[in-house]
Design goal:
It catalyses: 8-oxo-dGTP + H2O = 8-oxo-dGMP + diphosphate + H(+). It comes from Streptomyces lienomycini. With 152 residues, the protein is of the alpha+beta class. The chain starts with a strand and ends in an 18-residue tail after the last helix. Strands 1, 2, 3, 4, 5, 6 and 7 form a seven-stranded mixed β-sheet that branches. Bound molecules: 8-OXO-2'-deoxyguanosine-5'-triphosphate. The site of 8-OXO-2'-deoxyguanosine-5'-triphosphate (8DG) has 17 residues, from strand 1, strand 4 and strand 6.
Length: 152
C-alpha cells in the first residue's frame, strides 16, 4: 500500500510548543497532537503544513526544519514533522477545526498533556528543537518591539 503522509507541525513560539487537543473522531478525541493533517495529491508537505495551520488554527506560519524520523499511524498514514513558526502579524492560534483546546507548553510542561500514543516519539524528537529554535526562549530574530513572548 502506498504510504500517505500526515504532516504535523512542531509550532514553536517563545520557547514553547503548541499542543492541540483533538475533538474527533471519538477514538482520538481528548488526546493531544501536533496540529496538521493529510498531504493532498500534488501538494508538498511544507505547503500542506501551512494550509492546515491556516485552516485549523487561523494562523500564518512558515515551516522550518524537518524533525528527523517518521512515525506509523493507522495505515496507510505515516507522520512526518516539521518545526514551524508564526509569521509576524499572524493571529494567535484558535481551535477552529478538529481541536477543542490548545496549549503552549514549555519543555518542563511537555508531558503534562496526554499525547496520542503514536505522537510520543515524535514529540520527544521535536523537544530537541525547542531550545534550538529560540535560543534562550526569546525569538532568534530581532523583532523591534517584540518582547519574544509572542501570542498565546
Ligand atoms: N494532524 C495530526 N494527525 C495525527 C497526528 N497523530 C495522529 O495519529 N494523527 C492522525 C489523526 C488522523 O487520523 C490523521 C490526520 O487526519 P486529519 O483529520 O488531521 O487530517 P485532515 O485535516 O487532512 O483531515 P480530512 O481532510 O481527512 O478531514 O492522522 C498528529 O500529530 N497530527
Amino acid at each position: 500500500m502506498t504510504q500517505r503522509i500526515v504532516v504535523g507541525a512542531a509550532l514553536i513560539d517563545g520557547g514553547r510548543l503548541l499542543a492541540a487537543r483533538r475533538s474527533a473522531p471519538a477514538e482520538l478525541a481528548g488526546r493531544w497532537e501536533l496540529p496538521g493533517g493529510k498531504v493532498e495529491a500534488g501538494e508538498s508537505p511544507e505547503a500542506a503544513l501551512v494550509r492546515e495551520l491556516r485552516e485549523e488554527l487561523g494562523v500564518t506560519a512558515e515551516p522550518g526544519e524537518r524533525v528527523a524520523g517518521q512515525w506509523p499511524l493507522r495505515p496507510p498514514f505515516v507522520l512526518h514533522v516539521w518545526t514551524a513558526r508564526l509569521l509576524p502579524g499572524s493571529a494567535a492560534p484558535l481551535p477552529l477545526e478538529d481541536h477543542d483546546d490548545l496549549r503552549w507548553l514549555t519543555p518542563a510542561q511537555i508531558w503534562d498533556v496526554p499525547w496520542l500514543d503514536q505522537d510520543v516519539p515524535a514529540v520527544e524528537r521535536a523537544l530537541a528543537h525547542l531550545g534550538r529554535a529560540t535560543g534562550d526562549g526569546r525569538r532568534a530574530t530581532s523583532g523591534g518591539t517584540d518582547d519574544g513572548t509572542g501570542p498565546g
